[in-house]
């Protein structure tokens, strides 16, 4: 029997390895090779980038959602380690998520494409570190059920939810009065409302505090990101809509605050780098020195909190309305937002049309309580179709 140099290493599969969360995860993995081992990686199509990661971390299981990209990777075996196993499509990603040697799967695929692999990981009893908030908004109930059924841990990677998770350790959920997520305010926090009609994708992609992928950066500018996160918090921590709040906090140092029924508030603080929540989720329940420098209280540090003007950020108001409506409304909100953000990034619609498309899509689809996952997926497809039609209508009237 061979004895590993690192017998207690957790073996990690990383879906979305080439993205912003993926790259931060690689920094955590590189710093903790004694505790974490990367065994599988996947992306959509950037196979050359995956090849570099595979060689650096000694990974022999590689997935590409895009079949053509997967064929291109397989045609260049010299770029990978000998004996590399390539998989493609959603089934390939699900196969990676169930690798017998994996202990934990980190899903950081943009949008909802990671839903099936996430469910596959849970079905195989793997712990799930979840960055892709859209999955919880679409099908949170089914994710939670699968985790419970298979005795797998669900570890939030989104910084606010990771913060709430940390604050709740050792406390009964029944003693929680309210959870408050902080919002940086995004690219247009300090812009006068009248300038928002003319913002370009390049403007929206300039985030003041965080460096992230394009979709979530636009979501931060509309505050849809905070809307999605309120829904995510409601789902993850079993809260009522009125127990979920958001506050503007320009420094992005306090990530969430949990208020208990005795009035005490616990908060989690760290600099705005995703390496902190990623490392927490991967090593949980262990802790280890972080990759980035911690806060330094020998230097001046001001923390500021302001209420959010929901009239200025209709995506936040709409998120709250979907939480109150329940049923399929959050899933419709998510799907319409994804389509509208893609259209905005492609130059097809103005920034202020994003909430209009979402509101109109919500108005056109009758709400219901999806009974199973198939019903959710059908609804998701329908909401995307309706949102795309709304965008076409908008283009033809302007
Ligand atoms: P990026 O756009 O930077 O990266 C997306 C990643 O997903 C890339 O690796 C991309 O591969 C891959 N991908 C896209 N589509 C598919 C698919 N169908 N199958 C497999 N892989 C796919 O996104 P982020 O890293 O910013 O965000 C990822 C998720 O994490 C999002 O859900 C976001 O909301 C969430 N999140 C992100 C935060 C951040 O700081 N960035 C913070 C909190 C949550 P390829 O490179 O080949 O296109
Ligand atoms: Mg977040």
List the helices and strands and how they pair.
Elements: E1 10-15, H1 20-31, E2 36-43, H2 47-57, E3 61-64, H3 67-74, E4 85-88, H4 89-97, E5 104-107, H5 115-123, E6 127-130, H6 133-150, E7 154-156, H7 159-168, E8 176-183, H8 201-204, H9 214-222, H10 224-237, E9 244-248, E10 254-260, E11 265-269, H11 275-283, H12 314-325, H13 329-345, H14 353-364, H15 373-397
Parallel strand pairs: 1-2, 1-5, 2-3, 3-4, 5-6, 6-7, 8-9
Antiparallel strand pairs: 8-10, 10-11
Helix pairs in contact: 4-5, 5-6, 6-10, 6-13, 9-13, 10-12, 13-14, 13-15, 14-15
Bound molecules: NADPH dihydro-nicotinamide-adenine-dinucleotide phosphate and magnesium ion.
Residues 158-160, 229 line the site of magnesium ion.
How do you describe this structure in short?
Helix content is 45%, strand content 15%. The chain is an alpha/beta fold.
Largest sheet: 7 strands, parallel
Please, how many helices?
15
Overall geometry comes to globular
Average pLDDT, all residues: 95
CATH class of the largest domain: Alpha Beta
Walkthrough of the structure:
45% of the residues lie in helices and 15% in strands. The chain is an alpha/beta fold and 398 residues long. It has three domains: 3-157, Rossmann fold (3-Layer(aba) Sandwich); 159-272 and 295-309, no CATH class; 326-398, Rna Polymerase Sigma Factor, Chain: A (Orthogonal Bundle), CATH 1.10.1740. A seven-stranded parallel sheet has the order 4-3-2-1-5-6-7, with helices on both faces. Strand 6, helix 6 (133-150) and strand 7 form a beta-alpha-beta unit. The protein is globular, with a radius of gyration of 21 Å. The mean pLDDT is 95. Residues 158-160, 229 line the site of magnesium ion.
């Amino acid at each position: 029997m061979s004895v590993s140099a690192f017998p207690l290493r957790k073996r990690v599969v990383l879906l979305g390895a080439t993205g912003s969360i993926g790259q931060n995860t690689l920094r955590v993995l590189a710093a903790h090779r004694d505790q974490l081992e990367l065994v599988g990686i996947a992306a959509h199509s950037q196979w050359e980038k995956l090849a570099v990661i595979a060689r650096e971390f000694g990974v022999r299981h590689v997935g590409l959602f895009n079949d053509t990209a997967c064929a291109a990777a397989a045609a260049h075996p010299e770029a990978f380690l000998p004996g590399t196993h390539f998989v493609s499509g959603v089934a390939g990603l699900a196969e990676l998520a169930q690798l017998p040697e994996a202990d934990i799967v980190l899903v950081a695929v943009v949008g909802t494409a990671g839903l099936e692999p996430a469910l596959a990981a849970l079905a195989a009893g793997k712990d799930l570190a979840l960055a892709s908030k859209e999955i919880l908004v679409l099908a949170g109930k089914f994710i939670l059920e699968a985790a419970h059924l298979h005795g797998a841990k669900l570890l939030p990677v989104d910084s606010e939810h990771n913060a709430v998770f940390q604050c709740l350790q050792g406390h009964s959920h029944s003693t929680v009065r309210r959870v408050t997520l902080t919002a940086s305010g995004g690219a247009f926090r300090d812009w006068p409302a009248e300038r928002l009609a003319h913002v370009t994708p390049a403007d929206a992609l300039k985030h003041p505090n965080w460096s992230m992928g394009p979709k979530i950066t636009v979501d931060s500018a509309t505050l849809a990101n905070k809307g999605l996160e309120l829904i995510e918090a409601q789902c993850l921590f079993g809260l009522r809509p009125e127990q979920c709040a958001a506050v503007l906090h320009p420094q992005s140092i306090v990530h969430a605050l949990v208020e208990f029924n005795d009035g005490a508030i616990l908060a989690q603080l760290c600099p705005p780098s995703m390496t902190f929540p990623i490392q927490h989720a991967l090593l949980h329940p262990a802790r280890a020195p972080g990759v980035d420098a911690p806060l330094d209280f020998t230097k001046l540090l001001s923390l500021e909190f302001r209420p959010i003007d929901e009239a200025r950020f209709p995506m936040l108001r709409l998120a709250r309305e979907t939480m109150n409506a329940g049923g399929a409304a959050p899933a419709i909100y998510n799907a319409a937002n994804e389509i509208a953000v893609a259209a905005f990034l492609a130059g097809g619609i103005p920034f202020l049309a994003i909430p209009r498309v979402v509101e109109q899509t919500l108005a056109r689809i009758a709400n219901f309580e999806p009974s199973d996952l198939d019903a959710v997926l059908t609804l998701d497809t329908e909401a995307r179709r309706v949102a795309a039609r709304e965008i076409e209508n908008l283009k033809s009237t302007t």
